[in-house]
Amino acid sequence: MTTSAEHLSLETPLVDVPESSSSYTGSAVPPSSSAPSPSEVYPMFSHHKFMREGDLVIMQLTREVMQPVVIQSGEVIQNRYGMYHHSDLIGVPFGSRVASANGKGFVWMLRPTPELWTLALPHRTQILYVADISYILAELNVRPGSIVVEAGTGSGSMSHSVARAIAPHGFLHSFEFHQPRAEKAKAEFEDHGMSSLVRCRHRNVCKDGFELENVADAVFLDLPAPWEAIKSAKAALKNDKITRICCFSPCIEQVLRTVTMLSSEGFSDISMSECLLRQHEVNPQIALPPVGSVTKKLEDQEVKKEARRRHQIEAALSKKRKVAATSLPGSPASGGVPQVSSGADENGEGTGEAQDGKEEVDQELIDHLMTQENAPAREKDGRRQVAQPVRKRRGDPVPYGMNLSRPAIDARGHTSYLTFATLFPTGLRPGDRSDDAEEDAEGDVEMEADGRSDALNKALASMTEEQVEKMMDPKTDGHAELISGLASKVAASAV
User: Fold this and answer.
1) Domain range spanning residue 75?
2) Same domain, 143 and 42
3) pLDDT score for 7
4) Structural domain ending residue among the three candidates 97, 116, 135
5) pLDDT over threshold 70, residue 124
6) Residue 80's closest CA among 58, 96, 102, 95?
7) What angle do CA 398, 412, 1 make, to 5 degrees?
8) Which residues contact 461 (CB under 8 A, 6 or more apart)?
């Protein structure tokens, strides 16, 4: 993930550099003898390669579990994956896989970014995630140098992304209603080197407003009742350029009231969006099996199938012989007189089946066995037997497949509705020119009416009595020509 460190200018430091300073400890600044580098001025989004004492590092334990850590000599981290000494982490490149002290576990040490901080930060409130944040910044047209107003600091997830987007010369005015959360967020921004970009204040903007006028390029409201802060937001937005506003509301009833207030305050292009993110697990290694292995696999299956079929037929014939032997009337088991077997004719001569010592295979039995050969479940001892899956051992080759990707099992659902609106410069907003336009229209009508009356009087005065009588007499055929001539005179005099 790229950062905004390359946008930071060495000639215009983001913080004041004192005359004397100790060695770099994350929040400290270097001596003033040399210009500060972006990594020293802005440690949260630094681009130096190796971890140093005082650096903020994101420790990734699992794919979903991350933990923020500040490197300090002598400290030790203990978790379910082992023990890690901070002294061993100093000088290690960001993004390295670090083994535990006993070598049985490992973790990944990642460079902090707003996206990773969103996943690792201590939650003080419900936060915004990357899907909503990226869409909001794009719709608000936030760029380096922008002035943004945020109501509802919360855990600071949105604030970190805005700070990176507006660096190095922009500014974020952030307001929080809850005083303990505001103090924690302010301390967090200072620790991350963002004091020159973000100012967090404790204030109830719905009641007291922002106390900002004509300064902001964009406003973001994450409030329970955003419609109560629309007027203050309108006053804070610049009135000489096109500006944008976004309201983050979880309920559709909040959206309806917000849209009504935005429309009444002269905002345009009002729209509502919902941003959902679906993650996919992608298999980057797509290896097709060779033709020879597929052919051999099919041949092995046919051999096993034929062997199984023969075994089933032999077992069925053996069972049939036992049943036939015990069911004969002359057999010892039946206790009767010996009778002619089914393998002899009426004269007692054996048939070909009895003479050869072979039995004819029952075709219906074979068909039945072939039909039941691949049945998923069989009856054994009165209980249904279900085929068990084959267990895979570690080291076994991954079976070939054509699934390039699949959706993740756990997906985040609805978060909130995003309501966007545009505020045009003064004079171009709906309703700004309505009164002036009506006055101008009335004045134009009066001027035009007066002009036509004077011109008509002049035209009539220039006509003779005979022309006027002829024009007023409907029986004459020339009144149309007179009227057209009068109209041309009126038009000429009006000009």
Assistant:
1) 5-116
2) no
3) 35
4) 116
5) yes
6) 102
7) 70
8) none
Q: Name the range with the highest mean pLDDT among 10-19, 32-41, 121-130, 348-357.
A: 121-130
- 198, 115, 183: which is closest to 150 by C-alpha? 198
Does the CA dihedral 88-89-95-98 come out positive or negative?
positive
Mean pLDDT of 304-311: 90
For 94-98, the CB contacts below 8 A with 24+ separation are 94/49, 94/50, 94/51, 94/57
Omega of the bond prior to 168 within 30 degrees of 0, cis?
A: yes
pLDDT digits (tens, 9 = 90+) for 157-205: 999 999 999 998 999 999 999 999 999 999 999 989 898 999 999 999 9
**Highest mean pLDDT range out of 32-41, 128-137, 383-392, 481-490?**
128-137
Whether 340 maps to a domain, the answer reads: no
Please report whether residue 472 resides in a domain.
Answer: yes
pLDDT band at 271 (very low <50, low <70, confident <90, very high): very high
| Confidence category of residue 459, pLDDT binned at 50, 70, 90 | low
**306 within some domain:** no
SS (H, E, C) 381-440: CCEEEECCCCCCCCCCCCCCCCCCEEECCCCCCCCCEEEEEEECCCCCCCCCCHHHHHHH
Residue 60, SS3?
Answer: strand
Q: Tokens for 44?
A: 């949260």
Has residue 366 been placed in a domain?
Answer: no
> How many whole angstroms separate alpha carbon 249 and alpha carbon 126?
12
Q: Which amino acid is at 164?
A: R
| Adjacent-strand bridge partners of 202 | 176
How far apart (Å, rounded) are the C-alpha atoms in residues 277 and 273? 13
Do residues 334 and 326 make contact, with C-beta atoms less than 8 angstroms apart?
yes
Distances (CA, A) of 471 to 45, 60, 174: 89, 99, 79
Work out how many domains the chain is built from and give that number. Answer: 3
What is residue 54's predicted lDDT score, i.e. its pLDDT?
87
Cβ atoms of residues 364 and 322 within 8 Å: no
**443 contacts: CB under 8 Å, gap ≥ 6:** none
Which residue type sits at 275? C
**Average pLDDT across the chain, whole number:** 75
Judge whether 166 and 144 are in contact, CB under 8 Å. yes
For the chain, percent helix, then strand, then coil, each to nearest 5? 35, 20, 45
Between CA 22 and CA 30 the distance in angstroms is 7
Please tell me whether residues 265 and 209 are part of one structural domain: yes
Q: Which residues pair with 199 in a beta bridge?
A: 173
